[in-house]
Amino acid sequence: MSVTIANMADLRSSRERIVEAAAALLTEGGREAVSTRAVSAAAGVQAPTIYRLFGDKRGLLDAVAGHGFAAYLRSKTALEKTADPVEDLRRGWDLHVGFGLENPAYYALIYGEPRPGAKSPAARDAAAILENQVRRIAEAGRLRVSEERAAHLIHSAGAGITFELISLPPERRDMELSRLARESVIAAVTTEKPMASDGTTGHAIALRAALPRIDALSAGEKALLAEWLDRMVD
After folding, report:
1. Are the C-beta atoms of 100 and 162 separated by less than 8 Å?
2. Which of 36, 62, 89, 221 could be a cystine partner for 120, CB 3.0 to 4.6 Å?
3. Dist. CA 64–CA 14, nearest whole Å
4. Any idea which architecture 1-55 has in CATH?
5. Who contacts 203 (Cβ-Cβ below 8 Å, separation ≥6)?
């Protein structure tokens, strides 16, 4: 047992050294600098150790992305919720853009190469936080489109404006662009007041958001009702 525990500790130590070495190389030289040879030398391990711990280079890069994104995710999760979920969304947007500008190498690693049907663990965690923010807006009756459509639009607009600002020299970055994009997206997917103008759609979206917590229906009944509500919203 003691040997197994010692081995696990050694693996954990090696993993941490490798991730930290790769993160330093990424910050200093971009993704191209994160080669297996360079990481091995910087971490003081053999190349097979990297493959044993991470599977392949993609696995290593995902681990590095998680390392760099950890502080951001903690700060985003720690944002105290207010009574206004739309205002909370604004703060989440600003935090997202701020992370990208402060950590362009990490941001490009996480969002720069979309893989259909696959996301890094860090990107999945961030997406889950955004989905929760959108669900709170839906439950408040202030979402004018489906949760899925709103989350996709918010994320794509936020990522687009972040990459645009990253591409500009710091002295030319107009942060008003981020505010204008943010407010345009919020206007497109939310209402000023609950159930504004189209009460039927607003009620359908709110009920769809609350559906997972309804215990009076079976799984099959929930699935059927979810399909009907989605069709009403669309």
Report:
1. yes
2. 62
3. 14
4. Orthogonal Bundle (1.10)
5. 141, 195
